[in-house]
Amino acid sequence: MPMKPRELRAEVLNATGRGADGGVGAGGGEGAGLAGISVAAEPVGRDGAGGSGESSGDSEPKENAGAVERGESAEPNVGAGASEGAKTSVAAEPARPLGGDDGDSDPSVKRVLAVDLGASSGRVMLACYDGFKLELREIHRFDNVPIESVGGLYWDADGLFAEIVAGIRLAAAEGHPILGIGVDTWGVDYGWIGPGGELLRPPHHYRDARMARHAAKLVRRLPPREQFELTGNQPNAINTAYQLFADLEQEPQLRELAAHFLMMPDLFHYRLSGVMAAERSILSTGGLLAAGGSEPSAEVLARLGIPAALLAPVVPAGTVLGELRPDLQAQLCCGPLRVVAGASHDTASAVAAVPYGCGDAAAGGADRGAAGLSPAAGMTGTAENGAIDSAAGLSPAAGMAGSPQNPAPDSAAAQTQPASRGAAAFISCGTWSIAGIETPQPVLSDAAYECGLTNEACYGGGSRLLKNITGLWLLQECRRHWNAGGEALSHGDLAALAEAAGPADSRIDPDDPRFAAPGDMPERVRQFCRDTGQPVPGDHGELARVVLESLADAYGRAIDELESISGRRIAAVHLVGGGSRNRLLCRLTAERTGREVIAGPVEASAAGSALIQLAALGELDFGRRAEILGRSFALERYRPAAR
Predict the structure, then answer these.
(1) Is 346 among the residues known to form the active site?
(2) Do 23 and 162 contact (CB within 8 A), yes or no?
Protein backbone atom coordinates (compact mmCIF):
# COMPACT_ATOMS: atom_id res chain seq x y z
CA MET A 1 0.00 0.00 0.00
CA PRO A 2 1.27 3.50 -0.76
CA MET A 3 2.16 5.36 2.42
CA LYS A 4 0.32 8.52 3.37
CA PRO A 5 2.35 11.74 3.48
CA ARG A 6 2.45 12.04 7.25
CA GLU A 7 3.52 8.42 7.66
CA LEU A 8 6.57 9.22 5.57
CA ARG A 9 7.91 11.83 7.98
CA ALA A 10 9.61 9.34 10.31
CA GLU A 11 11.05 7.45 7.35
CA VAL A 12 12.61 10.47 5.70
CA LEU A 13 14.27 11.62 8.92
CA ASN A 14 16.14 8.34 9.01
CA ALA A 15 16.78 8.21 5.28
CA THR A 16 18.28 11.64 4.76
CA GLY A 17 21.44 13.41 5.81
CA ARG A 18 25.15 13.39 5.13
CA GLY A 19 26.42 15.11 8.22
CA ALA A 20 27.57 18.62 8.86
CA ASP A 21 29.47 19.25 5.65
CA GLY A 22 26.48 20.80 3.92
CA GLY A 23 25.78 17.91 1.54
CA VAL A 24 22.39 16.44 2.20
CA GLY A 25 20.65 13.96 -0.05
CA ALA A 26 18.19 11.14 0.15
CA GLY A 27 19.51 7.94 1.59
CA GLY A 28 18.30 4.54 0.61
CA GLY A 29 17.87 5.63 -2.99
CA GLU A 30 21.30 7.07 -3.72
CA GLY A 31 22.99 5.25 -6.49
CA ALA A 32 20.27 2.62 -6.52
CA GLY A 33 18.41 2.23 -9.79
CA LEU A 34 15.61 0.14 -11.15
CA ALA A 35 16.49 -2.57 -13.62
CA GLY A 36 20.18 -2.15 -12.93
CA ILE A 37 20.37 1.49 -13.99
CA SER A 38 23.67 3.07 -13.08
CA VAL A 39 24.03 6.80 -13.41
CA ALA A 40 27.42 8.32 -14.10
CA ALA A 41 27.93 12.03 -13.56
CA GLU A 42 28.71 13.00 -17.14
CA PRO A 43 27.89 16.61 -18.04
CA VAL A 44 25.54 17.07 -20.95
CA GLY A 45 24.79 20.16 -23.00
CA ARG A 46 27.13 22.57 -21.20
CA ASP A 47 28.10 25.71 -23.05
CA GLY A 48 31.05 26.73 -20.96
CA ALA A 49 29.22 29.69 -19.48
CA GLY A 50 30.67 28.96 -16.07
CA GLY A 51 29.19 30.82 -13.19
CA SER A 52 27.71 33.64 -15.20
CA GLY A 53 24.22 32.38 -14.64
CA GLU A 54 23.43 32.21 -18.33
CA SER A 55 21.19 29.44 -19.42
CA SER A 56 22.61 26.80 -21.68
CA GLY A 57 19.32 26.86 -23.49
CA ASP A 58 18.29 23.48 -22.15
CA SER A 59 15.41 24.99 -20.25
CA GLU A 60 12.06 23.26 -20.35
CA PRO A 61 10.59 24.54 -23.60
CA LYS A 62 7.03 24.92 -22.38
CA GLU A 63 7.31 26.13 -18.84
CA ASN A 64 10.49 27.73 -17.78
CA ALA A 65 10.30 31.14 -16.46
CA GLY A 66 12.90 30.13 -13.92
CA ALA A 67 15.42 30.27 -16.70
CA VAL A 68 13.85 33.57 -17.67
CA GLU A 69 15.85 35.50 -15.13
CA ARG A 70 18.96 33.57 -16.00
CA GLY A 71 18.68 34.57 -19.65
CA GLU A 72 20.27 37.98 -19.19
CA SER A 73 20.23 38.73 -15.50
CA ALA A 74 23.94 39.49 -15.34
CA GLU A 75 23.65 42.36 -17.80
CA PRO A 76 22.30 45.65 -16.44
CA ASN A 77 20.08 47.57 -18.85
CA VAL A 78 21.29 45.92 -22.02
CA GLY A 79 20.42 47.71 -25.20
CA ALA A 80 20.81 51.12 -23.64
CA GLY A 81 20.68 52.71 -27.06
CA ALA A 82 16.91 52.29 -27.24
CA SER A 83 14.95 55.33 -28.26
CA GLU A 84 14.30 57.40 -25.15
CA GLY A 85 11.21 58.92 -26.73
CA ALA A 86 9.42 55.57 -26.67
CA LYS A 87 10.28 54.69 -23.08
CA THR A 88 9.40 56.04 -19.68
CA SER A 89 10.47 54.77 -16.28
CA VAL A 90 8.42 54.01 -13.22
CA ALA A 91 11.13 54.42 -10.63
CA ALA A 92 11.20 52.30 -7.52
CA GLU A 93 11.51 53.95 -4.13
CA PRO A 94 15.08 54.80 -3.05
CA ALA A 95 16.75 51.63 -1.89
CA ARG A 96 17.33 51.02 1.76
CA PRO A 97 18.89 47.70 2.79
CA LEU A 98 16.46 45.26 4.33
CA GLY A 99 18.67 42.24 4.46
CA GLY A 100 20.46 43.15 7.66
CA ASP A 101 24.04 43.06 6.38
CA ASP A 102 24.98 45.56 9.08
CA GLY A 103 24.32 42.93 11.73
CA ASP A 104 21.13 44.51 13.11
CA SER A 105 18.01 42.39 13.04
CA ASP A 106 14.94 44.54 12.48
CA PRO A 107 11.98 42.48 13.73
CA SER A 108 9.68 44.24 11.27
CA VAL A 109 11.57 42.71 8.33
CA LYS A 110 10.20 39.31 7.31
CA ARG A 111 12.55 37.00 5.40
CA VAL A 112 11.87 33.98 3.20
CA LEU A 113 14.00 31.96 0.80
CA ALA A 114 12.94 31.54 -2.83
CA VAL A 115 14.68 28.61 -4.53
CA ASP A 116 14.44 28.98 -8.31
CA LEU A 117 15.64 25.98 -10.32
CA GLY A 118 15.99 26.17 -14.09
CA ALA A 119 17.15 23.48 -16.44
CA SER A 120 20.72 24.80 -16.57
CA SER A 121 21.24 26.62 -13.26
CA GLY A 122 19.62 27.41 -9.96
CA ARG A 123 19.82 29.96 -7.21
CA VAL A 124 18.67 30.56 -3.68
CA MET A 125 17.30 34.09 -3.24
CA LEU A 126 16.74 35.84 0.09
CA ALA A 127 13.59 37.96 0.06
CA CYS A 128 13.15 40.64 2.72
CA TYR A 129 9.83 42.44 3.24
CA ASP A 130 9.31 45.33 5.67
CA GLY A 131 5.60 45.82 5.07
CA PHE A 132 6.30 48.41 2.39
CA LYS A 133 8.62 46.92 -0.23
CA LEU A 134 10.28 43.67 -1.18
CA GLU A 135 14.02 43.28 -1.62
CA LEU A 136 15.68 40.27 -3.30
CA ARG A 137 19.28 39.23 -2.88
CA GLU A 138 21.04 36.23 -4.39
CA ILE A 139 22.52 34.02 -1.67
CA HIS A 140 23.75 31.05 -3.69
CA ARG A 141 23.96 30.20 -7.40
CA PHE A 142 24.87 26.84 -8.87
CA ASP A 143 24.88 24.85 -12.10
CA ASN A 144 22.25 22.26 -12.94
CA VAL A 145 24.00 19.78 -15.20
CA PRO A 146 22.09 16.73 -16.49
CA ILE A 147 23.76 13.35 -16.12
CA GLU A 148 23.82 10.71 -18.82
CA SER A 149 24.08 6.97 -18.59
CA VAL A 150 23.15 3.92 -20.60
CA GLY A 151 19.73 4.14 -18.97
CA GLY A 152 19.01 7.61 -20.32
CA LEU A 153 19.28 11.27 -19.38
CA TYR A 154 18.67 12.27 -15.77
CA TRP A 155 18.66 15.15 -13.27
CA ASP A 156 21.06 15.08 -10.33
CA ALA A 157 18.38 15.45 -7.65
CA ASP A 158 20.78 14.66 -4.81
CA GLY A 159 23.24 17.27 -6.01
CA LEU A 160 20.52 19.88 -6.43
CA PHE A 161 19.20 19.21 -2.94
CA ALA A 162 22.69 19.58 -1.53
CA GLU A 163 22.92 22.98 -3.24
CA ILE A 164 19.56 24.04 -1.79
CA VAL A 165 20.78 23.06 1.67
CA ALA A 166 24.01 24.97 1.08
CA GLY A 167 21.92 28.04 0.27
CA ILE A 168 19.89 27.66 3.46
CA ARG A 169 23.14 27.36 5.41
CA LEU A 170 24.52 30.57 3.90
CA ALA A 171 21.32 32.48 4.61
CA ALA A 172 21.09 31.18 8.17
CA ALA A 173 24.70 32.13 8.82
CA GLU A 174 23.72 35.79 8.49
CA GLY A 175 22.00 35.41 11.84
CA HIS A 176 18.51 36.68 11.03
CA PRO A 177 15.31 34.64 11.42
CA ILE A 178 13.93 33.12 8.22
CA LEU A 179 10.22 32.41 8.11
CA GLY A 180 9.88 30.14 5.11
CA ILE A 181 11.25 28.50 2.01
CA GLY A 182 9.65 27.54 -1.30
CA VAL A 183 10.98 25.88 -4.47
CA ASP A 184 9.92 26.47 -8.06
CA THR A 185 11.23 24.56 -11.09
CA TRP A 186 10.59 23.86 -14.75
CA GLY A 187 7.60 21.67 -15.58
CA VAL A 188 6.79 18.06 -16.53
CA ASP A 189 9.63 16.12 -14.80
CA TYR A 190 9.32 14.01 -11.63
CA GLY A 191 10.97 11.46 -9.35
CA TRP A 192 9.78 8.01 -8.26
CA ILE A 193 9.44 7.53 -4.48
CA GLY A 194 9.63 4.09 -2.87
CA PRO A 195 7.43 2.81 -0.02
CA GLY A 196 10.10 3.76 2.53
CA GLY A 197 10.23 7.35 1.31
CA GLU A 198 13.41 6.87 -0.71
CA LEU A 199 14.07 8.22 -4.20
CA LEU A 200 14.20 5.09 -6.33
CA ARG A 201 16.46 6.62 -8.99
CA PRO A 202 17.45 10.03 -10.30
CA PRO A 203 14.56 11.73 -12.14
CA HIS A 204 14.54 11.47 -15.91
CA HIS A 205 15.21 14.60 -17.97
CA TYR A 206 12.39 15.70 -20.28
CA ARG A 207 14.79 15.41 -23.24
CA ASP A 208 15.30 11.71 -22.55
CA ALA A 209 14.46 9.66 -25.65
CA ARG A 210 12.29 6.99 -24.04
CA MET A 211 8.96 8.76 -24.71
CA ALA A 212 9.39 8.56 -28.48
CA ARG A 213 9.41 4.76 -28.29
CA HIS A 214 5.93 4.70 -26.77
CA ALA A 215 4.25 7.87 -28.04
CA ALA A 216 2.39 6.17 -30.90
CA LYS A 217 0.80 3.66 -28.53
CA LEU A 218 -0.23 6.43 -26.16
CA VAL A 219 -1.83 8.43 -28.98
CA ARG A 220 -3.86 5.39 -30.03
CA ARG A 221 -5.23 5.16 -26.51
CA LEU A 222 -5.71 8.89 -26.07
CA PRO A 223 -5.78 10.97 -29.29
CA PRO A 224 -4.22 14.45 -29.13
CA ARG A 225 -7.49 16.41 -29.39
CA GLU A 226 -8.94 14.42 -26.50
CA GLN A 227 -5.84 15.10 -24.42
CA PHE A 228 -6.47 18.81 -24.91
CA GLU A 229 -10.17 18.56 -24.08
CA LEU A 230 -9.57 16.55 -20.91
CA THR A 231 -6.59 18.44 -19.50
CA GLY A 232 -6.32 21.77 -21.32
CA ASN A 233 -2.70 20.93 -22.18
CA GLN A 234 -1.30 20.69 -25.67
CA PRO A 235 -0.14 17.11 -26.44
CA ASN A 236 3.63 16.84 -26.27
CA ALA A 237 5.99 13.90 -25.90
CA ILE A 238 7.75 15.65 -23.01
CA ASN A 239 4.53 15.89 -20.97
CA THR A 240 4.38 14.06 -17.66
CA ALA A 241 1.60 11.84 -19.01
CA TYR A 242 3.84 10.62 -21.84
CA GLN A 243 6.79 10.11 -19.48
CA LEU A 244 4.76 8.11 -16.94
CA PHE A 245 3.27 6.01 -19.71
CA ALA A 246 6.73 5.26 -21.09
CA ASP A 247 8.11 4.38 -17.65
CA LEU A 248 5.26 1.99 -16.89
CA GLU A 249 5.49 0.39 -20.33
CA GLN A 250 9.23 -0.23 -19.92
CA GLU A 251 9.16 -1.04 -16.21
CA PRO A 252 5.73 -2.33 -15.20
CA GLN A 253 7.18 -3.31 -11.83
CA LEU A 254 7.02 0.36 -10.88
CA ARG A 255 3.33 -0.15 -10.15
CA GLU A 256 4.37 -2.27 -7.16
CA LEU A 257 7.78 -0.79 -6.32
CA ALA A 258 6.77 2.90 -6.22
CA ALA A 259 4.53 4.54 -3.63
CA HIS A 260 4.23 7.85 -5.49
CA PHE A 261 5.81 10.02 -8.13
CA LEU A 262 6.54 13.62 -7.19
CA MET A 263 6.99 16.53 -9.58
CA MET A 264 10.39 18.18 -9.19
CA PRO A 265 9.45 21.00 -6.78
CA ASP A 266 7.23 18.60 -4.83
CA LEU A 267 10.21 16.27 -4.51
CA PHE A 268 12.36 19.01 -2.97
CA HIS A 269 9.54 20.20 -0.71
CA TYR A 270 9.19 16.59 0.49
CA ARG A 271 12.88 16.32 1.24
CA LEU A 272 12.73 19.59 3.15
CA SER A 273 9.56 18.91 5.14
CA GLY A 274 8.87 15.17 5.05
CA VAL A 275 5.40 15.87 3.57
CA MET A 276 4.31 14.55 0.19
CA ALA A 277 1.92 16.71 -1.81
CA ALA A 278 1.24 17.52 -5.46
CA GLU A 279 1.01 21.30 -5.91
CA ARG A 280 -1.60 22.24 -8.48
CA SER A 281 0.35 24.63 -10.73
CA ILE A 282 3.23 22.22 -11.34
CA LEU A 283 0.88 19.26 -11.82
CA SER A 284 -1.06 21.28 -14.39
CA THR A 285 1.93 21.35 -16.76
CA GLY A 286 2.02 17.68 -17.71
CA GLY A 287 -1.28 16.50 -19.17
CA LEU A 288 -2.68 14.82 -16.03
CA LEU A 289 -4.81 17.38 -14.22
CA ALA A 290 -8.43 17.71 -15.26
CA ALA A 291 -8.92 20.95 -17.19
CA GLY A 292 -9.69 23.71 -14.71
CA GLY A 293 -9.94 21.28 -11.82
CA SER A 294 -8.01 20.34 -8.73
CA GLU A 295 -7.78 16.59 -9.26
CA PRO A 296 -6.19 14.39 -11.93
CA SER A 297 -8.36 13.40 -14.86
CA ALA A 298 -9.68 9.95 -14.00
CA GLU A 299 -10.24 9.23 -17.69
CA VAL A 300 -6.66 10.11 -18.64
CA LEU A 301 -5.28 7.89 -15.88
CA ALA A 302 -7.56 4.99 -16.76
CA ARG A 303 -6.88 5.10 -20.50
CA LEU A 304 -3.13 5.30 -19.98
CA GLY A 305 -3.02 2.67 -17.24
CA ILE A 306 -1.56 5.02 -14.61
CA PRO A 307 -2.71 4.02 -11.10
CA ALA A 308 -4.33 6.95 -9.30
CA ALA A 309 -2.62 5.86 -6.07
CA LEU A 310 0.72 6.95 -7.53
CA LEU A 311 -0.30 10.61 -7.21
CA ALA A 312 0.18 12.44 -3.93
CA PRO A 313 -2.70 14.56 -2.57
CA VAL A 314 -3.22 17.67 -4.72
CA VAL A 315 -2.90 21.00 -2.89
CA PRO A 316 -3.36 24.57 -4.17
CA ALA A 317 -0.45 26.95 -4.60
CA GLY A 318 0.30 28.70 -1.33
CA THR A 319 -0.08 25.64 0.92
CA VAL A 320 2.08 25.55 4.06
CA LEU A 321 3.33 21.96 4.19
CA GLY A 322 4.98 22.18 7.60
CA GLU A 323 8.30 23.02 9.19
CA LEU A 324 11.76 22.20 7.93
CA ARG A 325 12.72 18.74 9.18
CA PRO A 326 14.19 18.87 12.72
CA ASP A 327 17.46 17.24 11.67
CA LEU A 328 18.00 19.94 9.03
CA GLN A 329 17.10 22.66 11.52
CA ALA A 330 19.72 21.34 13.91
CA GLN A 331 22.33 20.87 11.24
CA LEU A 332 21.85 24.29 9.67
CA CYS A 333 21.07 26.29 12.83
CA CYS A 334 18.26 27.96 10.91
CA GLY A 335 15.24 27.61 13.16
CA PRO A 336 11.80 26.22 12.29
CA LEU A 337 11.25 27.87 8.93
CA ARG A 338 8.07 26.77 7.18
CA VAL A 339 8.09 24.92 3.87
CA VAL A 340 5.57 26.49 1.49
CA ALA A 341 4.39 24.89 -1.74
CA GLY A 342 3.90 28.17 -3.58
CA ALA A 343 3.18 28.42 -7.27
CA SER A 344 5.96 25.90 -7.67
CA HIS A 345 5.91 25.90 -11.43
CA ASP A 346 8.34 28.68 -12.33
CA THR A 347 6.11 30.39 -14.89
CA ALA A 348 3.24 30.38 -12.41
CA SER A 349 5.55 32.05 -9.89
CA ALA A 350 6.64 34.62 -12.46
CA VAL A 351 3.03 35.43 -13.36
CA ALA A 352 2.27 35.93 -9.65
CA ALA A 353 4.79 38.81 -9.84
CA VAL A 354 3.26 40.49 -12.89
CA PRO A 355 2.58 44.03 -11.60
CA TYR A 356 -0.92 44.52 -12.99
CA GLY A 357 -1.81 48.15 -12.39
CA CYS A 358 1.81 49.10 -11.77
CA GLY A 359 1.45 52.60 -13.20
CA ASP A 360 -1.37 53.45 -10.83
CA ALA A 361 0.44 51.66 -8.02
CA ALA A 362 3.50 53.81 -8.48
CA ALA A 363 1.28 56.85 -8.19
CA GLY A 364 -0.09 55.55 -4.93
CA GLY A 365 -3.29 53.69 -5.86
CA ALA A 366 -3.43 50.44 -7.83
CA ASP A 367 -6.41 50.17 -10.18
CA ARG A 368 -6.13 46.39 -10.37
CA GLY A 369 -9.26 45.84 -12.41
CA ALA A 370 -8.55 48.47 -15.00
CA ALA A 371 -5.11 47.03 -15.49
CA GLY A 372 -6.62 43.76 -16.57
CA LEU A 373 -6.33 41.64 -13.43
CA SER A 374 -8.38 38.62 -14.28
CA PRO A 375 -11.00 37.22 -11.95
CA ALA A 376 -8.66 34.28 -11.40
CA ALA A 377 -6.29 36.35 -9.36
CA GLY A 378 -8.45 36.53 -6.30
CA MET A 379 -11.32 34.11 -6.79
CA THR A 380 -13.08 32.74 -3.75
CA GLY A 381 -15.06 29.58 -3.37
CA THR A 382 -13.58 27.84 -6.41
CA ALA A 383 -13.73 24.07 -6.42
CA GLU A 384 -10.01 23.71 -6.90
CA ASN A 385 -9.24 25.81 -3.83
CA GLY A 386 -11.30 24.25 -1.11
CA ALA A 387 -10.05 23.53 2.38
CA ILE A 388 -7.10 21.18 2.61
CA ASP A 389 -7.52 17.94 4.52
CA SER A 390 -6.84 19.02 8.09
CA ALA A 391 -5.83 15.49 8.98
CA ALA A 392 -2.82 15.90 6.71
CA GLY A 393 -1.76 18.95 8.68
CA LEU A 394 -1.78 21.29 5.69
CA SER A 395 -2.83 24.95 5.71
CA PRO A 396 -5.26 26.40 3.16
CA ALA A 397 -3.70 28.39 0.37
CA ALA A 398 -3.25 32.11 0.70
CA GLY A 399 -6.17 34.17 -0.46
CA MET A 400 -8.66 31.29 -0.44
CA ALA A 401 -12.05 31.66 1.19
CA GLY A 402 -11.99 30.32 4.72
CA SER A 403 -8.25 30.69 5.27
CA PRO A 404 -7.73 31.85 8.86
CA GLN A 405 -4.34 33.33 7.97
CA ASN A 406 -5.33 35.17 4.81
CA PRO A 407 -8.84 36.57 4.51
CA ALA A 408 -10.28 36.36 1.02
CA PRO A 409 -9.53 39.42 -1.12
CA ASP A 410 -12.28 41.75 -2.17
CA SER A 411 -13.72 39.63 -4.96
CA ALA A 412 -15.71 42.51 -6.40
CA ALA A 413 -12.56 44.57 -6.82
CA ALA A 414 -10.60 41.62 -8.11
CA GLN A 415 -13.18 40.87 -10.78
CA THR A 416 -13.66 44.43 -11.96
CA GLN A 417 -12.32 44.75 -15.48
CA PRO A 418 -13.77 47.68 -17.40
CA ALA A 419 -14.08 46.76 -21.04
CA SER A 420 -13.06 50.25 -22.04
CA ARG A 421 -9.60 49.77 -20.60
CA GLY A 422 -8.99 46.20 -21.77
CA ALA A 423 -6.97 43.39 -20.28
CA ALA A 424 -3.24 42.96 -19.81
CA ALA A 425 -1.20 40.09 -21.21
CA PHE A 426 2.19 38.92 -20.03
CA ILE A 427 5.34 37.68 -21.73
CA SER A 428 7.74 35.78 -19.51
CA CYS A 429 10.89 36.26 -21.50
CA GLY A 430 14.18 34.43 -21.22
CA THR A 431 15.71 31.34 -22.79
CA TRP A 432 12.14 30.45 -23.70
CA SER A 433 9.28 32.90 -23.92
CA ILE A 434 5.76 32.33 -22.68
CA ALA A 435 3.04 34.76 -23.77
CA GLY A 436 -0.31 34.54 -22.07
CA ILE A 437 -3.29 35.95 -20.25
CA GLU A 438 -5.05 34.90 -17.08
CA THR A 439 -8.55 33.49 -17.56
CA PRO A 440 -11.20 32.36 -15.07
CA GLN A 441 -11.58 29.01 -16.85
CA PRO A 442 -9.51 27.03 -19.37
CA VAL A 443 -10.10 27.90 -23.02
CA LEU A 444 -10.70 24.61 -24.83
CA SER A 445 -11.96 25.76 -28.22
CA ASP A 446 -10.89 24.32 -31.56
CA ALA A 447 -9.17 27.62 -32.32
CA ALA A 448 -7.12 27.43 -29.13
CA TYR A 449 -6.07 23.88 -29.94
CA GLU A 450 -5.19 24.68 -33.55
CA CYS A 451 -3.12 27.72 -32.50
CA GLY A 452 -1.10 25.61 -30.07
CA LEU A 453 -2.37 27.38 -26.95
CA THR A 454 -2.21 25.54 -23.65
CA ASN A 455 -3.90 26.04 -20.27
CA GLU A 456 -2.14 25.85 -16.92
CA ALA A 457 -3.06 26.70 -13.34
CA CYS A 458 -2.63 30.07 -11.63
CA TYR A 459 -1.99 30.94 -8.03
CA GLY A 460 -5.34 31.79 -6.48
CA GLY A 461 -7.35 29.70 -8.93
CA GLY A 462 -8.12 30.10 -12.59
CA SER A 463 -5.90 29.42 -15.57
CA ARG A 464 -3.13 30.82 -17.69
CA LEU A 465 -3.83 30.63 -21.43
CA LEU A 466 -0.35 30.36 -22.92
CA LYS A 467 1.58 30.42 -26.17
CA ASN A 468 5.09 28.96 -25.94
CA ILE A 469 7.74 30.61 -28.11
CA THR A 470 11.45 30.10 -28.50
CA GLY A 471 13.15 33.00 -26.75
CA LEU A 472 16.62 34.35 -26.08
CA TRP A 473 18.01 30.85 -26.58
CA LEU A 474 18.76 31.91 -30.16
CA LEU A 475 20.99 34.81 -29.09
CA GLN A 476 22.51 32.77 -26.25
CA GLU A 477 23.59 30.11 -28.72
CA CYS A 478 24.94 32.70 -31.16
CA ARG A 479 26.96 34.27 -28.36
CA ARG A 480 28.19 30.87 -27.17
CA HIS A 481 29.32 29.99 -30.70
CA TRP A 482 31.11 33.30 -31.24
CA ASN A 483 32.77 33.24 -27.84
CA ALA A 484 33.93 29.65 -28.38
CA GLY A 485 35.77 31.05 -31.39
CA GLY A 486 37.77 33.42 -29.23
CA GLU A 487 35.50 36.45 -28.91
CA ALA A 488 34.33 37.89 -25.60
CA LEU A 489 30.85 39.22 -26.30
CA SER A 490 28.42 40.00 -23.51
CA HIS A 491 24.66 40.10 -23.94
CA GLY A 492 24.94 43.87 -23.61
CA ASP A 493 27.46 43.92 -26.47
CA LEU A 494 25.06 42.03 -28.73
CA ALA A 495 22.18 44.32 -27.83
CA ALA A 496 24.27 47.39 -28.64
CA LEU A 497 25.42 45.89 -31.94
CA ALA A 498 21.83 45.03 -32.86
CA GLU A 499 20.73 48.58 -32.05
CA ALA A 500 23.49 50.05 -34.22
CA ALA A 501 22.66 47.71 -37.12
CA GLY A 502 19.29 49.34 -37.69
CA PRO A 503 16.12 47.65 -38.96
CA ALA A 504 16.56 44.16 -40.38
CA ASP A 505 15.50 43.14 -43.88
CA SER A 506 14.95 39.47 -43.01
CA ARG A 507 12.96 37.38 -40.54
CA ILE A 508 13.24 33.84 -39.21
CA ASP A 509 10.69 31.58 -37.56
CA PRO A 510 12.08 31.24 -34.00
CA ASP A 511 10.19 27.96 -33.54
CA ASP A 512 11.59 26.27 -36.65
CA PRO A 513 12.95 22.85 -35.55
CA ARG A 514 16.40 23.65 -36.96
CA PHE A 515 16.92 26.11 -34.08
CA ALA A 516 16.04 23.67 -31.28
CA ALA A 517 19.40 21.98 -30.67
CA PRO A 518 22.75 23.50 -29.62
CA GLY A 519 25.17 24.20 -32.45
CA ASP A 520 26.26 26.81 -34.96
CA MET A 521 23.25 29.06 -34.53
CA PRO A 522 24.60 31.96 -36.63
CA GLU A 523 24.94 29.70 -39.65
CA ARG A 524 21.46 28.23 -39.07
CA VAL A 525 19.98 31.73 -39.06
CA ARG A 526 21.80 32.59 -42.27
CA GLN A 527 20.76 29.31 -43.91
CA PHE A 528 17.11 29.95 -43.01
CA CYS A 529 17.37 33.29 -44.80
CA ARG A 530 18.96 31.65 -47.85
CA ASP A 531 16.30 28.94 -47.92
CA THR A 532 13.51 31.51 -47.79
CA GLY A 533 15.01 33.87 -50.37
CA GLN A 534 15.73 36.70 -47.94
CA PRO A 535 18.85 38.86 -47.55
CA VAL A 536 21.48 37.04 -45.51
CA PRO A 537 22.67 38.98 -42.44
CA GLY A 538 26.39 39.70 -42.38
CA ASP A 539 28.05 40.80 -39.15
CA HIS A 540 27.09 40.03 -35.57
CA GLY A 541 24.90 43.10 -35.20
CA GLU A 542 22.85 42.40 -38.31
CA LEU A 543 22.30 38.80 -37.28
CA ALA A 544 21.33 39.74 -33.71
CA ARG A 545 18.89 42.30 -35.09
CA VAL A 546 17.24 39.64 -37.28
CA VAL A 547 16.79 37.45 -34.20
CA LEU A 548 15.34 40.21 -32.01
CA GLU A 549 12.96 41.50 -34.67
CA SER A 550 11.83 37.93 -35.37
CA LEU A 551 11.13 37.38 -31.66
CA ALA A 552 9.15 40.61 -31.48
CA ASP A 553 7.13 39.54 -34.55
CA ALA A 554 6.38 36.19 -32.85
CA TYR A 555 5.27 38.00 -29.70
CA GLY A 556 2.97 40.21 -31.77
CA ARG A 557 1.35 37.20 -33.46
CA ALA A 558 0.88 35.47 -30.10
CA ILE A 559 -0.76 38.49 -28.48
CA ASP A 560 -3.12 38.86 -31.45
CA GLU A 561 -4.04 35.16 -31.22
CA LEU A 562 -4.64 35.41 -27.47
CA GLU A 563 -6.89 38.43 -27.97
CA SER A 564 -8.86 36.80 -30.79
CA ILE A 565 -9.32 33.42 -29.11
CA SER A 566 -10.08 34.73 -25.62
CA GLY A 567 -12.42 37.44 -26.87
CA ARG A 568 -10.74 39.91 -24.51
CA ARG A 569 -9.20 43.11 -25.81
CA ILE A 570 -5.55 43.27 -24.75
CA ALA A 571 -4.49 46.83 -24.03
CA ALA A 572 -1.04 46.31 -22.50
CA VAL A 573 1.71 43.70 -22.22
CA HIS A 574 3.81 43.02 -19.12
CA LEU A 575 7.23 41.70 -20.11
CA VAL A 576 8.93 40.07 -17.11
CA GLY A 577 12.13 38.12 -16.61
CA GLY A 578 15.65 38.50 -17.94
CA GLY A 579 14.49 39.66 -21.36
CA SER A 580 12.97 42.77 -19.77
CA ARG A 581 16.52 44.16 -19.50
CA ASN A 582 16.90 44.16 -23.28
CA ARG A 583 15.54 47.59 -24.13
CA LEU A 584 15.66 47.03 -27.88
CA LEU A 585 13.55 43.88 -27.55
CA CYS A 586 11.07 45.72 -25.31
CA ARG A 587 10.77 48.59 -27.79
CA LEU A 588 10.37 46.23 -30.76
CA THR A 589 7.71 44.29 -28.82
CA ALA A 590 5.76 47.49 -28.23
CA GLU A 591 5.97 48.30 -31.94
CA ARG A 592 5.00 44.81 -33.15
CA THR A 593 2.17 44.30 -30.67
CA GLY A 594 0.92 47.87 -31.04
CA ARG A 595 0.47 47.95 -27.27
CA GLU A 596 2.19 49.50 -24.33
CA VAL A 597 4.88 47.24 -22.83
CA ILE A 598 5.65 47.42 -19.10
CA ALA A 599 9.05 45.82 -18.51
CA GLY A 600 9.98 44.20 -15.19
CA PRO A 601 10.54 42.82 -12.70
CA VAL A 602 13.60 40.95 -13.90
CA GLU A 603 13.57 38.47 -11.01
CA ALA A 604 9.95 37.56 -11.56
CA SER A 605 9.95 33.91 -10.45
CA ALA A 606 11.76 34.67 -7.18
CA ALA A 607 9.57 37.70 -6.51
CA GLY A 608 6.40 35.70 -7.12
CA SER A 609 7.60 32.89 -4.88
CA ALA A 610 8.39 35.35 -2.10
CA LEU A 611 5.02 37.14 -2.37
CA ILE A 612 3.11 33.85 -2.22
CA GLN A 613 5.12 32.57 0.74
CA LEU A 614 4.64 35.77 2.70
CA ALA A 615 0.91 35.72 1.94
CA ALA A 616 0.63 32.06 2.99
CA LEU A 617 2.39 32.87 6.26
CA GLY A 618 0.05 35.78 7.00
CA GLU A 619 2.71 38.47 6.53
CA LEU A 620 1.42 40.08 3.32
CA ASP A 621 -1.88 40.90 1.64
CA PHE A 622 -1.49 39.46 -1.85
CA GLY A 623 -4.19 41.82 -3.09
CA ARG A 624 -1.61 44.61 -2.67
CA ARG A 625 0.96 42.97 -4.91
CA ALA A 626 0.83 45.67 -7.60
CA GLU A 627 1.70 48.49 -5.24
CA ILE A 628 4.35 46.39 -3.48
CA LEU A 629 5.97 45.47 -6.78
CA GLY A 630 5.75 49.05 -8.00
CA ARG A 631 7.63 50.23 -4.93
CA SER A 632 10.17 47.42 -5.01
CA PHE A 633 11.38 47.18 -8.60
CA ALA A 634 12.28 49.63 -11.34
CA LEU A 635 9.75 49.25 -14.14
CA GLU A 636 9.96 50.76 -17.62
CA ARG A 637 7.18 51.56 -20.08
CA TYR A 638 7.54 51.38 -23.86
CA ARG A 639 4.77 52.88 -25.95
CA PRO A 640 4.26 52.05 -29.63
CA ALA A 641 4.72 54.86 -32.10
CA ALA A 642 1.53 56.57 -33.17
CA ARG A 643 0.03 55.07 -36.33
Answers:
(1) yes
(2) yes
